[in-house]
Specification:
Elements: H1 13-44, H2 49-56, H3 67-72, H4 80-96
């Protein structure tokens, strides 16, 4: 019996298919987590919800983006300007009353940093 030295190249198809499925599951999990978080927040602030939505969807004067887009934006830098921007965001959220929220059912699974031990 003889063996051939010829090898068939392994297709990258299965690897890419696996990556696609992982990406799809991660995206679905992220959406589920965001929806759960949204439901918890809505339950905690039913009377303020309309005010919050209006304020969050209002354009920031001179920037042509909404407050919601601004809150979700990554800081422009790690320097003082970026820190000032983050401080402004915290101030805006405090104005909305976010600091007074009590969210005992907040789903934090997956968001904590585990420490090796």
């Amino acid at each position: 019996m003889t063996t051939s030295a010829y090898t068939v190249p392994v297709s990258n198809f299965h690897h890419e298919l696996g990556r696609y499925h992982v990406r799809r599951h991660v995206t679905a999990a992220w959406r589920h987590h965001e929806q759960t978080l949204f439901k918890v927040i809505v339950a905690a602030v039913p009377s303020q919800r309309d005010t919050w939505v209006t304020r969050l969807l209002t354009l920031i004067e001179g920037y042509e983006i909404t407050h919601l887009e601004w809150l979700g934006a990554v800081p422009s830098s790690k320097a003082t300007k970026g820190l000032e921007e983050q401080t402004e965001k915290i101030g805006f959220l405090k104005e909305l009353g976010a600091a007074r929220l009590v969210l005992p059912d907040l789903p934090l699974a997956g968001w904590s940093i585990s420490r090796g031990g």
